[in-house]
Amino acid sequence: MRTVPMTVIPTAAFLFALPLAAHHSYAPYDLERTVTLDGVVTKFLWANPHVYIDVQAEDDGNGTLTWTVESLSPVNMRNFGWSASSLAAGDRVTVTVHPARDPERKIAFGQSVLKTDGTLLSMPNLRDRTPRTADPTTVFVAADLSGKWQVRWDLGVVSQFIPPLALSLTDKGAAAVERFDANLDIPGRDCMPFTVPYIMLFAGLVNIELGEDVTVIRAAEVARTVHMKLDTHDGAPFDGQGHSIGRWENGALIVDTTGFTDHRSGNAWGLPSGSQKHLIERFALSADRTRLDYTFTLEDPEYLAAPVTATLMLTHRPDLPFVTMPCDLESARRYLEFIEQ
Q1: Domain that holds residue 172
Q2: Both 96 and 160 in a single domain?
Q3: Contact 187, 137 (CB under 8 A)
Q4: Residues 79, 83, 86, 87, CA torsion sign
Q5: Where in the chain does DSSP place strands (E)?
Q6: Do 186 and 333 meet the contact criterion of CB atoms below 8 Å apart?
Q7: Helices (H) and strands (E) in the chain, counts
Q8: How far apart are the first and last CA of the chain?
Q9: Using one digit for the tens of pLDDT, what is the confidence trace for 111-142?
Q10: CA-to-CA distance for 295 and 297, rounded, in angstroms?
Q11: Which of 3, 49, 179, 310 has its CA 20 to 30 A from that of 330?
């Protein structure tokens, strides 16, 4: 078995970027440098997985140049006060950005937007590892597992699944990680979602709908169906999120999932998963019913040399809206215009 580092982009920058986006490399941007653009919005693409703002800005030669400013997903942007109506074509703005490392390329990662009416809109920072949503002023007590649960950021757990991977890999798994291209191989370019348990680490908000026949667990843009009256996976079709069977055990929901289709990053960032992947999850209320403890054990002998077990804490948040937005192919692939081939 081998534990291998990934060197697609600098680890420190990637560590902070991935929880927010997990879509592509941010290597083209100079995160140590800041510039200010004064200009007019020509296009505001409010779409999943990335928001883009095209700004026609003045250059040093008294002419204008069109810059494309990238940010993160609408879900992350909403937590910073943004909405689909925050900007419109024709708005005059001052935009603070991290520019491209190559000065000839007019692309940037946004930091903030100042509008002429004085409104200052901050943007998610790639280096920011604070929770995306502030803790509630009211502690909410849950009646059961149903409802909305905010995933609490746990660097110790997350760091196992992002570069450099702290997982024991088979030779096949290590070779796949070494070959991984963070720009070209990431499934998100084709609007293919990540799979469990990976999506649970970065979902932000999880919504659970309990039922006698089926329970539905929604995380990010993925809705998983858990069959509560089945005791076997026999005959079930293979699926990107697998086939899940649920049972109750001492008040905890146990979810057993197999039948995963192959996925290029199905076990971790850059680490594939295959048909042998097997996931056991446990959802249990805390004694005071304000917290949900989520524990999983992941096995995939094709790529993982040893099972992986971890626990996350989720906080009951009925006060937060659970909003989903379908992946937009234009947004998902637009970054391909920026990367150096």
Answers
A1: 147-316
A2: no
A3: no
A4: positive
A5: 35-45, 52-58, 64-70, 92-99, 107-115, 120-122, 147-151, 205-209, 214-219, 222-227, 243-249, 252-258, 263-268, 271-273, 278-285, 291-299, 308-316
A6: no
A7: 6, 17
A8: 33
A9: 999 999 999 999 987 665 444 555 677 899 99
A10: 7
A11: 179
Residue appearing with tokens 């697609």: 8
Residues facing residue 214 across a β-bridge: 227
The amino acid sitting at 44 is F
158 lies in the same domain as 111: no
Question: Does residue 295 contact residue 282 with C-beta atoms inside 8 Å?
Answer: yes
Instruction: For residue range 158-187, list pLDDT tens digits in order.
Output: 999 988 999 999 999 999 999 998 778 888
Tokens, residue 172: 């096949």
243 is written with which tokens?
């086939």
What is residue 210's DSSP assignment?
-
Both 173 and 33 in one domain: the answer is no
Q: Which two tokens stand for residue 237?
A: 């079709």
Residue 228 · residue 213 · CB < 8 Å: yes
Alpha-carbon distances of 113 from 16, 19, 262, rounded to whole Å: 21, 23, 41
